[in-house]
Amino acid sequence: MSSVRKEIPVSHFYFWDKIPEELHLAVMIEFADNGCRYLTLPWQLLLLFHRKETGFRKNFLDKVHAAGLSILEAHAPCGAGLSLNSPDPALRDTMLNAHLDCMRIAADAGAGTYTVHIETRPYMDMEQPMGELVEMSTAFMIRSLEHLLPEAEKLGLILTIENCFSPMNTAEQLLRCLNAFNSPFLKCCFDAGHANYMRSGKTWEKLPAYHRVNTWRGKIDFDDHVLEKLAPFVATTHFHDNDGYSDQHRCPGDGTVEWGKIIPVLKQCPCIRSFQNETNALENRVSIARMCRTMMHLDSLGNNQP
Q1: Which end of the chain is more exposed for a tag (fewer CB within 10 A), N or C?
Q2: What is the maximum span of the chain, computed from C-alpha positions, in angstroms?
Q3: Model pLDDT for residues 293-303, shown as the tens digit of each residue
């Protein structure tokens, strides 16, 4: 193996919408005091930037800079009315315009990537065979990317599609979207927690019923090679951990993700530009100091490999 890059910039998520605004600066300083240099704009905050007056956004970003931090990456808003693969014609124009605005906000704040989902919810209640629904989902996702990519190129913003855990967002479906364009402004966000959730060797009955019955309709296509498939396109990452049976967003090291195996592979990815910590610190009661220490440790794995 050739030598690997020694250091990859690390960016941190935090649930800023869950804490009072008057505490934002204090929390940012805590990140800075623990060695953090970069933050990610989470989708909840980016959606607030889109919906509120510009003064709210300026106030938050002024605090980021006052703490000596910078915005490195952004996560696109998702969920009801915002699904890029939505088949509902009544929603699509409003949805696409919302994403265009959020992309401009993210780029203006300093973000270099804008991570998007291929979502499952718009198709969960449809009765067509799963194969037909996957084809429909991918077609609508590609149509949305056709609309967004020209603006991404103008902004210098890389759209990154995230691997999740349904038939709509497997590695194969991401690759179909990526290969439809072959654009330097369309890459992948490798989500380590989601890939761990989709690894084989599970006890079937321990998987959540919605995952077994609703999402996969009784037959899950487990995949132990998500990273290897996506590696040529990986530009950024989401790092969080779980027990392999649900999407828990624990701190790396608090689950079964094999970090010592995946970090050296990620450092060899030709397009890699950042590692993002996506731990749910509030729900899992993880301190900022511990998250920063953990990400520094992960960044050191695989250095100086022969």
Answers
A1: C
A2: 55
A3: 999 999 888 66
